[in-house]
Amino acid sequence: MSERNPADQQFRTGGGLGGMRKFGTGEKVKPASIYGMFVSIYSHAKLEWKSLTAAVLCMSAMSLLQFAIPQLTRITIDRIIPDRAFDRLFLVCIGVLGAAALLGILGYISTSLIAAIGQKVLYKLRNDLYRHLQSLDVSFFDRSRIGDLMSRVTNDVNILQQMISSSMMQLISDLFTFTAIAIYMLWIDWRLTLLLLATFPFMILTTRLFGKRMRASFRIVQESVADVSDHLQNALTGIRLIKSFTTESYESERFSKRTEKNMDANIQVVRLRAAYEPIIDFLNFAGLAIVLVFGAWLAMKGQMTVGTIVAFIAYLRLLQNPIRHFSRIINTIQQAAAGYERIMEILNTKAEIVEKQDAAVLPPVEGRIVFHHVDFAYNSASPVLSKFNLELADGQITALVGSSGSGKTTIAHLIARFYDPQGGAITIDGYDLKEVTLSSLREQIGIVSQDIVLFNGTIIENIRYGSIHATDEEVRAAAKAANASGFIEAFPQGYETQIGERGMKLSGGQKQRISIARAILKNPRVIILDEATASLDTESEQHIQEALAGLLQGRTCLVIAHRLSTIQQADRIYVLEQGRIVEHGTHGELIQLAGRYRQLYELQFPQSERGGKTANTHNREVKAL
Length: 625
Description:
The protein has about 625 residues and is an alpha/beta fold. About 60% of the residues lie in helices and about 10% in strands.
């Protein structure tokens, strides 16, 4: 079956990308290569080919200018000084200063162009990463830490930014210089040049050995940064819990352990670099010794001039500069490679809930939802539903009750297709949920849960989230229908009131009414109420019930509730235990049945709360409703 993922997958190109750790599984596979990272970056940089071409031309010109300056030194020593050509000294001065000025101008242009290209590449990468995260299903976020994901989108991308903005410019410039100088040196004296180049394989081998260890250490550094970020996010979100349990010292100790891991990993990186750089410097001095000894021997035999030796030493410095620079920026490159691996782990993660290639757009529905022999488990060892059958009649209120863990919320998640069943099928108006597009399905479903999600912003922005393009009048009408306009207009800023992080400036009842207003504004055909009033006081619950009465009018509604007072008017009530329906009927029928529902009802409403009425008297009153 052909399936598609809606996320932009541009950054999945480039060599060496096949070997990354599978995100969230713990399975380690071959790491991505630095070559793959550069190929991936280039595949996007080449889209800016005009700027890239101009930068390459500037760097080529800079290489030629760097090549020209030692030639002026050679000419001065070998010709001008012996010939006492005082008149040509001024030309040499102009040549050196002119070359230096042009190097500065060309360096500014090339650096600016490369930096702009790099920022555009990172802009695309960060947006691709965010879009891909948005495309992944709920199960991915169930097994992921929010702090770790935030670290990948921010810290790891920023590390790539450092490499592209500075290190890549240096690498490209050094590549041009190294190639030009090496060719010229071979032309001047191939014997001396080959002796000099004999030190380079040792440099490459040393770089490979240390590079692998550095990248492993940087991987630990960045994972520890993610741990710190995750701990910080949890601690700041739960600061009231921490203070109420006076666990500040405990949390500080936990945070200290995470930062200690980061400290140790950084120290290991510094030690590796401290060992690596002296080795590279020693090999560079070995090259200098070769030039001095063998060059002096050739000069004493009359086969090379002093000026040529001086120029050769200058070229040697230019030839060794790329190696010296690389030894300095290898930290940045290996850190970027580790960050690139972590980014690619996300981009290579495929959503489990995807649309078929030929998925149909779900037309406006009546809302009849049927579970046909559905099997579902979050993991194979613990099945939640087995051969499960359920029907939600269109335009009616269906309630689910039962013990915690009986599968009530799972049923709601399956209807919204946050998960797919492992067996059986779920249909809405006869359409299999797997045969329709996710957007057309979820656009017709509204969810109001106990766990209210509000964004840091204004009240009107949070309500408008139900329909992004709704007018202010439509937002106010939804708020009024949700019985929320009264308390909103009582605020000095009214609908423009800032509600704080996760709506911390609002009471539980106020937050719930805003979430209901958001659902009303969406105007869905199917409503899911997942413990929508479980944590509210009696007065707030009354306001919510009044708001819900307008929301549920004429819609298919699934109510999940522990508080049986909220579902007594439901058209159908299903009692679940361990993923199976053990009873179903109306409230009155289930009370008369004297089964599990009756037991739950009597636990919540003792005889004293029912005014001392007998069960039969109560049953007659219920039937009269």
